[in-house]
Write a structure and sequence with these properties.
The complex is a heterodimer of chains A (about 90) and B (about 425). By secondary structure, chain A is an alpha+beta fold. Chain A is built from three helices and four strands; from the N terminus they run E-H-E-E-H-E-H. A two-stranded antiparallel ribbon of chain A has the order 1-4. In chain A, strands 2-3 form a two-stranded antiparallel sheet. Chain A is globular. The termini of chain A are far apart. Chain B is of the alpha+beta class. Chain B has a single domain, classed as Cytochrome p450. Helix content of chain B is about 50%, strand content about 10%. In chain B, a hairpin with a 2-residue loop joins strand 5 and strand 6. Classes of the chains: A alpha+beta (about 90), B alpha+beta (about 425). At the A-B interface, helix 1 and helix 2 of A face helix 6 of B.
């Protein structure tokens, strides 16, 4: 199974913890929510780092999901929304 | 807008009672302001605008770990928190990867999902605390406000926190700025740490399904935590679980007493409880400022150069009242649905117990006014005082007349 790292916007409260813990994986956007910089991870250290962030997220908004069943019809939709439609 | 004059005094008597005029002046005239902290006469910088505070809290060029990064002057002044006591390595001062390892052990107990299970116990505890408040000769909302989080935390930790009043007193002493009082600061941290040790020992004898037992398991079973970290974590839960929510509930009650229209609105529209809590967190959050941050390297903020080691104060309540961010910021509006506040911090050290604090306040504050619809102050408003701690925004007491039958006959009004 191929997994991807994802932030669920409905759960995210914009605490900024993910970007603070793992700036190479997450970046806070101007809208106050994170965007995932790297969603397909293969490196063991990066996987461990992501697991740490998933466990520490205050709203359980971050997870690894099956890339096939959770395929986003528009992978950029999240980013667009966060940029306030600009 | 004030555009002239001398910088206001910080951390003096007037500031503690009302820091907002000082914050307003700083935001307008010196948003990154160098000043001298009274305890130890240490050079620091205070950041007061929302955007700057928000950026600072998410900036990994800053650390909370004074032992590793603070200026020599700060260390020499003995200001490194709890140095030499069992609580010196609390989660709050750790950087990744230690921060991640320790925080994840406790985070699972405080997610919104897990916290929802405490709704019924919290309602029960609030109802019983209101019964006790009603029996008081001189009812004090701050006593109610301290009982609720102490009892809820007791259930989560699996141990009745019988000594919570001693602990609240110790917390107040731990954050005072009296230049001669630093020995007592250390003693206060030692008392909190010793209580943490006691609770761990007690729980090792009688393990359960509570948070303390799961932290002990992480230490004794899985070796994911060392003994000092275990004790520090239990002590931290006592510190942050008791005092902050007490402050929030107390300040929220006062805010509603000060704003009868908002009080009436919450009474007629109880579904506003959640948005009201967000507004309480913004309007008068539990912490006046954040714990000190330290620049790991030379950093420039708003045109001001901070040397490596610079202690920096993130003025949370100033950010929450910044008119550049919030419309009419000094006005309490429980229907506000605009931008997020910093009442629970931001970034790496954002509040671990946020969901619990929200739950407790959303139950306790409306319940107080529902039980006592005629509640009013029992002393003149001008007699209310805030504790003189640099960290916390806590009323010393909030004496009330539960049934609005008039001021007590002590001739004070």
């Amino acid at each position: 199974m191929r997994t991807i790292l994802r932030v669920d916007r409905r759960e995210c409260a914009g605490s900024g913890l993910c970007a603070a813990v793992a700036p190479e994986l997450f970046r806070m956007t101007d809208g106050g929510f994170p965007s995932v910089l790297k969603s397909e991870l293969s490196d063991a250290d990066e996987m461990a780092e992501a697991e740490g962030v998933i466990a520490c997220c205050p709203t359980e908004a971050i997870s690894f999901v099956d890339a096939d069943t959770h395929a986003d019809p528009d992978p950029d939709a999240y980013q667009h929304a966060e940029n306030g439609g600009r | 807008m004030t555009t002239s004059g001398n910088p206001p005094k910080l951390f003096d008597r007037d500031y503690y009672q009302d820091p907002y005029p000082a914050f307003s002046w700083l935001r307008d005239n010196a948003p990154v302001h160098e000043f001298t902290f009274p305890a130890g006469a240490v050079t620091m910088w205070i950041i007061t605008r929302f955007d700057d505070v928000h950026a600072l809290l998410g900036d990994q060029r800053f650390s909370n770990d004074a032992a590793a990064w603070a200026s020599q002057e700060f260390k020499d002044a003995g200001l490194v928190y709890a140095q030499g006591t069992p609580v010196e390595r609390i989660l709050t001062v750790l950087d990744p990867p230690d921060h991640t390892r320790v925080r994840r052990l406790a985070m699972s107990a405080f997610t919104p999902r897990r916290t929802a299970q405490w709704e019924e116990p919290t309602s029960r505890i609030v109802a019983s605390a209101l019964d006790r408040l009603e029996k008081r000769d001189q009812p004090d909302v701050m006593e109610f406000a301290s009982t609720v989080p102490a009892e809820v935390m007791g259930e989560i930790m699996g141990i009745p926190l019988d000594r919570f009043k001693d602990m609240l007193h110790a917390i107040e002493r731990a954050f005072n700025t009296d230049p001669g009082g630093q020995d007592d600061v250390t003693r206060a941290f030692e008392e909190i740490g010793a209580y943490g040790r006691e609770l761990v020992a007690e729980k090792r004898r009688r393990p359960g399904t509570d948070l303390t037992s799961s932290l002990i398991q992480a230490r004794d079973g899985d070796d994911r935590l060392n003994e000092e970290e275990l004790v520090a974590m239990v002590a931290l839960m006592i510190m942050v679980g008791l005092d902050t929510t007490r402050n929030l509930i107390g300040s929220a009650a006062l805010a509603l007493l000060d704003n009868p229209d908002q009080r009436e609105l919450l009474r007629t529209r109880p579904e506003l409880a959640s948005s009201a809590v967000e507004e309480f967190l913004r309007y008068e959050g539990a912490l006046t400022i954040g714990l000190f941050r330290f620049a790991r390297e030379e950093v420039e903020i708003g045109g001001v150069r901070l040397p490596a080691g610079a202690p920096v104060v993130a003025a949370l309540q100033s950010a929450n009242r910044d008119p550049r961010r919030f419309e009419n910021p000094d006005h309490l509006d429980i229907t506000r649905d605009g931008p997020r506040h910093l009442g629970l911090g931001h970034g790496l050290h954002n509040c671990l117990g946020a969901a619990l604090a929200r739950l407790e306040s959303a139950i306790a504050v409306p319940a107080l006014f529902e039980r006592f619809p005629r509640l009013r102050l029992a002393v003149p408003r001008s007699e209310l005082r805030y504790n003189e701690t640099w960290l916390l925004r806590s009323l010393t007491s909030l004496p009330v007349d539960l049934h609005g039958d008039g001021l007590r006959g002590d001739g004070r009004d």
